[in-house]
Write a structure and sequence with these properties.
This is GDT1 family protein. Keywords: Membrane, Transmembrane, Transmembrane helix. The protein is mainly α. It has one domain. The protein contains eight helices and no strands.
């Protein structure tokens, strides 16, 4: 159960102000709160978390236990760096109202975002890809639903600062895990 709860908390924190959330919020502001957009966002969150959990299961079968912690630290570090460096555009351009195009954009954002790196890393580190995947899907759904229901809250300095602070914390945790696995800390 720790894998579920820790992954859920980490995904919720790392997903604040992420590219998928900003995309859903921007479209909700510009096009109105279309139920189809919410359904597409929820489906993409579930699918990408499932993909991250599946990838964690594949990697988990190949790695011996000591290497799992190192691999999880690398994934957490990638999530932290992504949160620190990649800044989502505030008003992404959407030339069409196509739900298929939205699905494609959201999947591309989510496959490489911090939340899915966390699902992947926690799934490997805790040797619990299913629990991490379910937590990641739940957290991803909460994040995109929040963006759809309250899009104006994501265009604040607090959301941008929260994203940066969580990114810094993830990077520090990853570095600590990595160094402690080698006995340096």
């Amino acid at each position: 159960m720790p894998a579920f709860y820790l992954t859920l908390i980490a995904v919720l924190l790392a997903g604040i102000g992420a590219r998928d959330q900003i995309t859903v919020a921007s479209l909700s502001i510009r096009q109105g709160q279309r139920p189809g957009a919410l359904i597409v966002a929820l489906l993409s969150a579930i699918a990408t978390a499932g993909f991250a959990a599946w990838a964690a299961g594949i990697v988990l079968a190949e790695l011996p236990p000591p290497a799992r912690t190192i691999f999880a630290a690398i994934a957490l570090g990638m999530a932290g760096v992504e949160s620190l460096l990649l800044v989502p555009r505030r008003n992404p351009r959407e030339p069409t109202n196509s739900l298929g195009a939205l699905l494609l954009v959201l999947v591309m954002h989510q496959v490489t975002d911090a939340a899915r790196f966390l699902v992947f890393g926690m799934g490997v580190g805790f040797a619990a890809p299913i629990a991490s995947g379910v937590a990641g899907a739940l957290g991803g759904c909460v994040l995109v639903a929040f963006a759809w229901f309250w899009p104006h809250l994501l265009d604040t300095a607090a959301a941008r600062w929260t994203r940066r602070i969580v990114g810094a914390l993830l990077t520090v945790v990853a570095l600590t895990m990595f160094l402690s696995e080698f006995g340096i800390l």
